Amino acid sequence: MLRTATARITKKSALPITRGSFSAAAEDPLGTMRRLYEEHGEISALEDGQRVIFVFGPEFNQRVLSDAETFHSYFFPIRGPRDSAQRRLTSGLLSQNGARHREQRRLLLAPFQKRVFPAYVQRIAELTHAMLRDWRVGQTRDLHVEMNSLLLRITSSLLFGLNDSGLALELGEMIDRWGAMSQRIGLAAIIPQPQSHGRYQGLLAYAEQLETGIRRMIGLRRCDPSGDDVLSILLRSQAAGDGLTDEELIGQAALLFSAAHLTTAHSLTWTLFLLAQHPSQGRRLSEELTSDCARPALHPVESDSFLDRVIKESLRILPGSAYVQRVAMKPVSLGPFRLSRGTVVVFSQFMTHHMPTLYEQPERFHPDRWLSLRPSPYAYLPFGAGARRCMGGPLAEMIMKLVAPAIWRRFRLRVVPGSTIDANAISTMLAPLTPVRVQLHPLDAPLKASPVEGNIHRYVEMVEV
Ligand code: HEM
């Protein structure tokens, strides 16, 4: 976080500014944003030699997100030298702006349209059942580990190979490792460390290996382009003359995987945790799933179900993406600030979703609030808003609506009593920092919330509504 802060401070004034340390903010992004909101309200700056602007709430979200010409996205901290594998791997949508972004986004849309989803459903079902085959009543499982591993399989398979997931999985693991290496060095860029040069060279070398793997996968898919995975669909558009080049595919493949895997895994972990800790809501979901047994077990449900409200509410209270940043490309006024070119602006889904003016008792997990609530796209934005709204949002929701009920139909989950559950934003995602261990109980066992410790209590009041 805050790694691209380059704006210079030109004068001192009575603006809503807090002086602090960027490295402390990077350690606790959510705590920092909350303090800024409490001190200054919907817009403020954190100053540490340079200035980063924080905006909270629908009005400023809209201002920033609907002006993609002024506020650009720069997602990857380390781009690497021109013509390097690292540069190509970090050239996906979230590094593109303006006309190029619009054009590439159009070329990427085909595999994310709902009419393609039936091809994905069977694979998601198979992989979920494969995971559950090893789950037994009496065991304790770490939801954080299990969901990361399941989503690694699902994402690799949907993106790179529905039929032979061996190589797809290998590629997914490599992209995860590359993402983690980039993130470590990204932090080192604002907190210089003696070992960062060696790490940088290591990252560039690993990027070459990863690029070789993606090129190999592209070659294989091209030999048999009949598949229904995302890569095959994109290669068919390419063959039809309206598609991405191979170089572009490399960057988009790395971006798609990075954007999809952990966001969805964390969101599922939080949904299951919230259900386990709110027995009356968990019970209602069980009842709905039981009465729904005429429907095929893994059919994505319609949007008026209780499950739908559970997912919506979980993405509100613990959104998989906690904040996002933009960079001003020209001098511009924003609230009381006059931003110079290069100023970083942060907006936060987490903060907006916890504003009491928008959501009554925002720290309560209350799925039924969605029976009547219709917030604007800038007040509820787990998948962002505007020109860069998440392309994979409907796919992520479908995955969540398939996986969560598959687990809920088989077990009663009880969080291990006395667990410490900490969460914070890592690389913009709201991630568990601790294991989220649950005991697997039979379906006739009573649902029971467990006493837990940790900073999760700052974000969720563990009481029944
Ligand atoms: C629960 C899971 C997910 C969450 C919370 C999430 C969240 C987001 C958010 C907030 C953005 C906007 C970023 C910005 O404004 O800069 C975004 C963009 C994006 N997401 Fe997702 N996402 C999820 C799953 C997925 C999946 C499954 C895919 C693809 C398979 C995906 C692909 C993308 C892409 C390609 C973009 C960039 C769009 C653009 O720049 O035009 N996401 N996502």
Report what the structure shows.
The chain is an alpha+beta fold. The protein has one domain (17-459): Cytochrome p450 (Orthogonal Bundle). Helix content is 48%, strand content 11%. The chain contains 16 helices and 13 strands. The protein has helices spanning 22-27, 29-40, 58-65, 85-89, 98-108, 117-133, 143-160, 165-190, 196-223, 230-239, 246-277, 279-291, 306-317, 349-353, 393-408, 456-459, and strands at 17-19, 43-48, 50-55, 71-72, 140-142, 324-328, 332-334, 337-339, 344-347, 412-415, 423-426, 429-432, 437-441. The strands form 4 sheets. A 6-stranded mixed sheet has the order 1-2-3-9-6-4, with helices on both faces. Strand 2 (43-48) and strand 3 (50-55) form a beta hairpin. Helix 11 crosses helix 13 (306-317) and helix 11 (246-277) packs parallel to helix 15 (393-408). It is globular and about 60 Å long. The chain starts with 16 loop residues before the first strand and ends in a 6-residue tail after the last helix. Residues 1-11 have low confidence and may be disordered. Residues 73, 93-94, 105, 255-256, 259-260, 263-264, 267, 320-321, 324, 382-384, 388, 390-392, 395-396 line the site of protoporphyrin IX containing FE.
